[in-house]
């Protein structure tokens, strides 16, 4: 296998944090089945070529590969990618590869190459979300699906996603989100229209801190997801 054991060992401790269900990444593990089922329900991914933009440690990418998709996960965080690669090796996950490349650079290299593109919890962390949306649109084949998830910029999201999740409940590290970078659904919809993506479905994601349960709903006031398609 073309892997350096010393490099894999170096990132073992970090990998444990990404894939530890009780670490700061616990919320991503808990919402992953909801996301995966929603994506697969609208755009069945088995046998499809799928791109996961901003894949981090590979939580969604790995689960899509286990559903039978041919997955490429991309990120600009080198350490996170090494974590993802290490996990794939340890878990024996087939059908997933990772690359350190920007979505814009990949769009120039491989336009209209993927059946499904996912971009989850990334847009609120980049300076130009519209550029990411456009690149995702360029990467998907005509008739293909592009899925986004992000956080609404609203008083409720400030209370729940920042004050509640980061400071009161400690679900996320403090400073994970910046309020001014959050994106209203109307703004994301405008980015999608500008990229010639047709919005097909919107879902909100809610959380009960007492039961630690997440569920999908029509309430997009805090966390929400878009399912879009590129016209044929």
TrEMBL record:
Pathway: Cofactor biosynthesis; ubiquinone biosynthesis. S-adenosyl-L-methionine binds at residues 35, 54, 75, 120. One of its GO terms (molecular function) is 2-polyprenyl-6-hydroxyphenol methylase activity. It is an enzyme of class 2 (transferase). Its EC number is 2.1.1.222, 2.1.1.64. It comes from the Bacteria. Keywords: Methyltransferase, S-adenosyl-L-methionine, Transferase, Ubiquinone biosynthesis. InterPro entries: SAM-dependent_MTases_sf, UbiG_MeTrfase. SUPFAM superfamilies: S-adenosyl-L-methionine-dependent methyltransferases. Gene3D superfamilies: Vaccinia Virus protein VP39. It catalyses: a 3-(all-trans-polyprenyl)benzene-1,2-diol + S-adenosyl-L-methionine = a 2-methoxy-6-(all-trans-polyprenyl)phenol + S-adenosyl-L-homocysteine + H(+); a 3-demethylubiquinol + S-adenosyl-L-methionine = a ubiquinol + S-adenosyl-L-homocysteine + H(+). Pfam families: Methyltransf_23. GO terms for biological process: methylation. O-methyltransferase that catalyzes the 2 O-methylation steps in the ubiquinone biosynthetic pathway. Belongs to the methyltransferase superfamily. UbiG/COQ3 family. This is Ubiquinone biosynthesis O-methyltransferase. It comes from Variovorax ginsengisoli. The lineage of its organism: Bacteria, Pseudomonadati, Pseudomonadota, Betaproteobacteria, Burkholderiales.
């Amino acid at each position: 296998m073309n892997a350096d054991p010393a490099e894999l060992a170096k990132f073992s401790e970090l990998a444990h944090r990404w894939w530890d269900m009780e670490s700061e990444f616990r919320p991503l593990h808990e919402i992953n089945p909801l996301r995966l089922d929603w994506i697969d329900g609208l755009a069945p991914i088995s046998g499809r070529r799928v791109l996961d933009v901003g894949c981090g440690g590979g939580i969604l990418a790995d689960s899509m590969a286990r559903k039978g998709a041919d997955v490429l996960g991309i990120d600009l965080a080198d350490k996170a990618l090494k974590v993802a690669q290490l996990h794939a090796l340890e878990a024996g996950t087939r059908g997933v590869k990772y690359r350190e490349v920007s979505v814009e650079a990949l769009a120039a290299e491989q336009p209209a190459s993927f059946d499904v593109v996912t971009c989850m919890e990334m847009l609120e962390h980049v300076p130009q979300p519209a550029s990411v949306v456009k690149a995702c649109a360029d990467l998907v084949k005509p008739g293909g699906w592009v899925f986004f998830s992000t956080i609404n910029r609203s008083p409720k999201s400030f209370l729940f996603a920042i004050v509640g999740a980061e400071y009161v409940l400690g679900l996320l590290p403090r400073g994970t989100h910046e309020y001014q970078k959050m994106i209203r659904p109307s703004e994301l919809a405008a980015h999608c229209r500008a990229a010639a993506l047709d919005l097909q479905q919107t879902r909100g994601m809610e959380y009960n801190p007492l039961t630690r349960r997440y569920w999908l709903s029509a309430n997009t006031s805090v966390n929400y997801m878009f399912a879009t398609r590129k016209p044929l």
